[in-house]
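Expect sequence, tokenised fold; for instance:
***
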Amino acid sequence: MAAYEITTAGVREMTTFLQWADDEQWNPGKQDHLPFHAADPHGFLLGRLDGEPVTSVSAVRYGADFGFIGFYIARPEVRGQGYGIQAWRAAMKALDGRNVGLDGVVEQQDNYRRSGFRTAWNHVRYAGVPGEEKPPADIRVTDAGSVPFGLLASYDRRFFPARRDAFLSLWVGVPGHTALVALQEGELRGFGVVRPAGTGARVGPLYAASDDIALALLNGLSASQQGAPVALDVPDVNVRAVRLMERLGLEPTFECARMYTEGVPDVDGAGIYAATTIELG
């Protein structure tokens, strides 16, 4: 009988998670493995069949009461044989007692509902090279390293269900990532990160107090990619964000549902113009 074992993945094995996600055309960032693993070193589960990796899933814990599931993949050659559901159960057990979120692809959403998840909104991936449009001159966009990290972490907490300082410190500092903040009248009014991916670049998060601030940040992030297309996972409940993407000529290319087990967390949803990632929330 074949031996199937689920163990915690180390940081080196995170490249397997990213490669499989790329095979699924999810287009993860090229350097995602380091900040992802730092978010929760025990949160990535790799299933092996007779020693060969065949399943992946992440069950990342944030704070005392929130968790996020991602990277739920069974390799094509073992699908329908029960290995994937075993990985799923291990992930859910690891997050027992927490409000759990995920971004579910269309074909899996009914299965997630049967596991107690309910749709909060859809994330629509908009991609392309943003059209030229200038924001007001009183918005100053600068490197995120120019503001104290504690201020940046507190600002991020407004839009995310828990503090995630270890993840955030690497997310803004990994080589290849460009992190910008927007200042208006001396106040921190927006934050965004862009990172290279297999195809083009991914923007996330993108937080802003207004369309003009989101535009200023997106202009700066896009300019850092020297004409390469960018992609953003935009919550469709933020109508202003959707309209901005359409106004800039970006095209919808992919859709998934943000789902939770215990209701939508209390965050500043109106300021979220793009999610950080669909893998870790």
The mean pLDDT is 95. The first helix runs from residue 14 to 23.
